[in-house]
Amino acid sequence: MSDATTLEAALTRLPLAEVSPLLNQGFCETIGLEYLELTGDRAVARWTVGAHLHQPAGIVNGGVYCTVIETVVSTAGTVWIGDRGHVVGVNNNTDFLRAVRTGTLTVTATPVHRGRTQQLWQAEIRDEQDRLVSRGQVRLANIENTERLAQS
């Protein structure tokens, strides 16, 4: 059983408290992304901004917002598709609306459309004063035959 299969099984069958350590690896661990809610219909996560996420002008790098949005959307999309397959992001369109230097940010993702071959999700990132910082839309491809992924 692959690590991806193990994670997908955990996402659909375990309580969030038990899934969080599995999700908090790699990039998510680096930024400290913490899931507060995770279902196939909605995902909410938060993280604290610090200098380690800044671009040279001293504000959060836009790539952080893109990556957080795609990560949270992909995780929720994986929960929704369950044991029918995997999801992969095929388009990420993220707008940056407010500069941030410090504080806690919260991302909320909800589906716009979920079909047989693709899903479309929207996400908003808000600051501690509930001001919109960034918003994004991610299209996911639903992949049933996962053995074909990343093969030449």
Automatic annotation (TrEMBL):
Q: Which domain of life is it from?
A: Bacteria
**Of which family is this protein a member?**
Belongs to the thioesterase PaaI family.
Boundaries of every Thioesterase domain copy: 58-133
Recall the taxonomic lineage recorded for the source organism.
Bacteria, Bacillati, Actinomycetota, Actinomycetes, Mycobacteriales
**UniProt-recorded name of the protein:** PaaI family thioesterase
> Keyword set for this entry?
Hydrolase
EC number(s) on record? 3.1.2.-
Q: Name one GO molecular function term.
A: hydrolase activity
Q: Which SUPFAM superfamilies match?
A: Thioesterase/thiol ester dehydrase-isomerase
